[in-house]
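Supplementary Note 3. Input sequence used for the single-chain structure prediction.
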Amino acid sequence: MEAGIEDGSAVIAWSAPTAMGFDFETLGRDRRVPRDFDGLKLVSFLPADYEEDSG
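The predicted structure, written as discrete structure tokens, is reproduced below.
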């Protein structure tokens, strides 16, 4: 699924039987990370100086 993303970032969303009516996944080196919050999937932002290797 990550093929072709290289140094970029992407979000994929689809219809799903959740409270929100959809689900999503993020890919790439972006600082956005999906987090579950009482059954809702929200987006958390990592610090600007975050390094994937150290996280």
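Strands lie at 9-15, 22-28, 32-37, 40-45. The longest strand covers residues 9-15.
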